[in-house]
C-alpha cells in the first residue's frame, strides 16, 4: 500500500490528478478483467493491477525521457539490484526475465546480465 501511495504522488506531480486517476482505474479494471479470464477458479481482490499499471507508466516515462536524467548511473544500479534479486527468486518468470536475466561469470564469480533490460543498459565490454 505504501508503494501505491509513493508512486501515485510521484506521478501526480508530473501528470496531474485526472491523468493518474484515469490510468489507475483503467489498469485496475483491466487487471481484474484479465485475472478473471485466466484464473477462473480463484477469487482475487486487490489493487495489484492498478499498481502495475502505474509502474508501467513510470517505466514508459523513464524510457521516453532517458536523456534528460542527470543521475542515470543510480537508475541503472537500482535496476541491476532489483533484477538480480527477482531473477534469483523467480528465474523462470517471463516478466522477470524481461527485466534482466543473469549468469554467473566463469572467471570472477560475479553475475553478469545476459538478457532483458539490464543487458541493454549495460556498457559494452572490451
Automatic annotation (TrEMBL):
Listed EC numbers: 3.4.21.105
A molecular function (GO) term: serine-type endopeptidase activity
InterPro entries: Peptidase_S54_rhomboid-like (IPR002610), Peptidase_S54_rhomboid_dom (IPR022764), Rhomboid-like_sf (IPR035952)
Membrane topology, as annotated: Multi-pass membrane protein
Catalytically driven reaction(s): Cleaves type-1 transmembrane domains using a catalytic dyad composed of serine and histidine that are contributed by different transmembrane domains
One Pfam family cited in the UniProt record for this chain: Rhomboid
Keyword terms, alphabetized: Hydrolase, Membrane, Protease, Serine protease, Transmembrane, Transmembrane helix
Signal peptide: none
Residues covered by the Peptidase S54 rhomboid domain: 1-79
Subcellular location field: Membrane
Transmembrane segments: none
GO biological process terms on file: proteolysis
GO cellular component terms, semicolon-separated: membrane
UniProt family annotation: Belongs to the peptidase S54 family.
Purpose of the protein: Serine protease involved in intramembrane proteolysis.
Protein name according to UniProt: RHOMBOID-like protein
Amino acid at each position: 500500500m505504501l508503494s501505491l501511495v509513493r508512486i501515485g504522488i510521484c506521478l501526480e506531480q508530473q501528470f496531474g490528478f485526472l491523468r493518474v486517476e484515469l490510468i489507475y482505474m483503467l489498469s485496475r479494471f483491466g487487471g481484474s478483467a484479465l485475472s478473471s479470464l485466466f484464473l477462473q477458479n480463484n477469487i482475487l481482490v486487490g489493487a495489484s493491477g492498478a499498481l502495475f499499471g502505474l509502474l508501467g507508466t513510470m517505466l514508459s516515462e523513464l524510457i521516453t525521457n532517458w536523456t534528460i536524467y542527470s543521475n542515470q548511473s543510480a537508475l541503472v544500479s537500482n535496476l541491476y539490484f532489483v533484477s538480480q534479486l527477482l531473477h534469483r527468486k523467480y528465474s523462470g518468470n517471463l516478466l522477470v526475465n524481461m527485466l534482466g536475466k543473469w549468469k554467473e561469470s566463469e572467471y570472477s564469480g560475479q553475475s553478469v546480465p545476459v538478457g532483458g533490460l539490464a543487458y541493454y543498459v549495460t556498457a559494452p565490454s572490451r
